[in-house]
Here is the input.
Amino acid sequence: AKEKKRHMGDTKHFCPVSLKENFVLYPGLYEHAAKYQEKIYYFSTSEYRDKFLKNPEEYVAHNEPIQAPPLRVCLLGTHGAGKTTCARQIADKLGIFHIQFEEYLQELILPKTKEKVGPDFDGEPEEDDNKMTILSQELDNFSQTMAKTEAEKSKQEVELTDEEKAIKANLMDNEALPPEVLDNIVLDWWRKEPFRSTGFILDGFPRTLDEAQYLSERGLCPDVAVYIQVEESDVLDRLFPPRLKEWKERQYRKMENKKKLKDLKAKIRV
Here is the structure.
């Protein structure tokens, strides 16, 4: 074992081409090994092995050791497990970026949707609010032309691109994000500054097998993947109190709106 270790290449069991070109520590495979200057190098694909052999000096260490990429962590777990709380603490301690994946998706479409979308943000329909709006319009005598203009303006503001529609469908109905949409979002965290040289903890991604396969196919390897496993009762203890508070506040607003609705109706009769 010691003999083998002494003769391994500069990047040990990681692919030197992936490291040089993508700044990623991608494990090499035994079947894609090659020998150069009495050292064994392992490659992630046969194409990368061939690329190395054409110009090996481009991928080996010279005067200084090859620089390793920064830490990249994927933090996984069920909703309510405490991923975001842990991720913030780890990011602060290690001096790396914290990326909350679904929050990032929300921010991408928020300029057009005007509010966050998805099951966590869908409140009960406020019927009284709708009635009050109609009555208020009657009371203020809004013209039909102005209402039509406002409706058209509102329609223009919420017109989404195909990518934004895919993101919204993912947030609302868990529809899979196409690879081309993920390319526009995820690749930058591995390949562009300031993430490339600083590192990050990616909170809540990958969420599905397809997303994990996407990372593998793109050669985007996290250094660590951590799954937070908690008891169901602990999740309920975390999530139930704020949901109950929201429900109580919604009931209070409904009662207040009913009072206002009654007053508006009385004004219209007068």
